[in-house]
Specification:
Elements: E1 9-11, H1 13-19, E2 22-27, H2 37-50, E3 55-58, H3 63-75, E4 79-83, H4 89-97, E5 101-104, H5 109-119, E6 124-127, H6 133-148, E7 155-159, H7 164-175, E8 183-188, H8 193-200, H9 223-231, E9 234-239, H10 241-255, H11 261-271, E10 282-287, H12 295-299
Parallel strand pairs: 2-10, 3-4, 3-6, 4-5, 7-8, 7-10, 8-9
Antiparallel strand pairs: 1-2
Helix pairs in contact: 2-3, 2-6, 3-4, 6-7, 7-9, 10-11
Length: 300
């Protein structure tokens, strides 16, 4: 059984013309749950189901929680998702639509996560939103798909929250002898835990996370993402909330696809001309998606 699907790789004429290079979009927004998180959740849930797991427990009120709920439903196993009070009504609705048990606990993710951990057992497996090697294994298949279509990118642009996407992409690039290519890791001003860590030379915990890109709001990037960012050619970038939202709007006009601001941060790099590329460069943008974004929320 394949839970995550092979997503389209499309050439973006508008972004190619804007950037003066060849821009390719890996459309993770086309996953059944609307985000790349289904690659990681599907892979780790299948792994534990094969080992005899009876249920799953997760602690994300965003894309990861929805993806675990979906994976459990596909595998015929019950799922409990613990979300903080800040989780949107839309995200809660999508988690329950997948048949998961929803528990609201705590003001922030760390409190919800602590409660989720207390529910886990040998057979009720805890699924972390971003920090587990099995998650990165699932995400790394994204690069396998790109390579299989004959594209060897000269640069990659992606968003960073907890760091699972960065971890999985670096892993996939290493498998295909592409560890040397630059990765532009983009965050919003209010969620820039990776940029803060790279500047400090060590992982730091942000005093607070803020802004519109709620799915990037990890106060500390996972240790693996920090380590691979220091070893690989990872270039941290920061954009404003307005830039992220405007990029989502322009992308909707250009490609008829609605993405969340956490994805807009990557698109902003090209829409706002924040990075320069050569005419023959193949630039891969991970359109990471957004399970619970709506037109109303973006307009708001």
């Amino acid at each position: 059984m394949e839970i995550a699907i092979r997503t389209p790789l499309i050439h973006s004429l508008p972004l190619s013309q804007l950037s003066g290079s060849n821009v390719w979009l890996k459309m993770e927004s086309a996953q059944p749950t609307g985000s790349f998180k289904l690659r990681s959740a599907g892979h780790i849930c299948q792994h534990y189901a094969a080992q005899g797991a009876k249920a799953f427990v997760s602690s994300s009120g965003g894309n990861a929680g929805i993806a675990v709920a979906h994976s459990g439903r596909r595998l015929g196993l019950p799922v409990t998702v613990v979300v903080p009070e800040t989780t949107s009504a839309r995200a809660r609705q999508l988690i329950e639509q997948e048949g998961a048990r929803l528990i609201v606990h705590g003001n922030v993710w760390s409190e919800a996560n602590a409660y989720a951990l207390s529910l886990a057992s040998h057979e009720h497996i805890y699924i972390h939103p971003f920090d587990n090697p099995l998650l990165w294994d699932g995400i790394s298949t994204l690069i396998d798909e790109v390579i299989s279509e004959g594209l060897r990118p000269d640069a990659i642009i992606l968003s960073v929250g907890g760091g699972s996407l960065l971890s999985g992409i670096v892993q996939g690039l290493k498998r295909h002898q592409l560890s040397h290519i630059p990765i532009y890791a983009v965050e919003t001003e209010g969620t820039a835990s990776l940029n803060a860590a790279l500047e400090a030379g060590e992982r730091v915990t942000l005093d607070r996370v803020s802004g519109i890109a709620t799915t990037l709001a990890a106060s500390q990037v996972c240790e693996n993402a920090f380590n691979v960012a220091r070893r690989a050619d990872v270039r941290g970038k920061v954009v404003s909330d307005d830039e992220a939202v405007n990029a989502c709007r322009r992308f909707l006009d250009d490609h008829r696809v609605l993405t969340e601001p956490a994805c807009g941060v990557s698109l902003s790099m090209l829409y706002d001309g924040k990075i320069g590329f050569k005419p023959d460069d193949n630039v891969l943008v991970i359109v990471c998606g957004g399970a619970s974004v709506t037109l109303a929320s973006l307009q708001g």
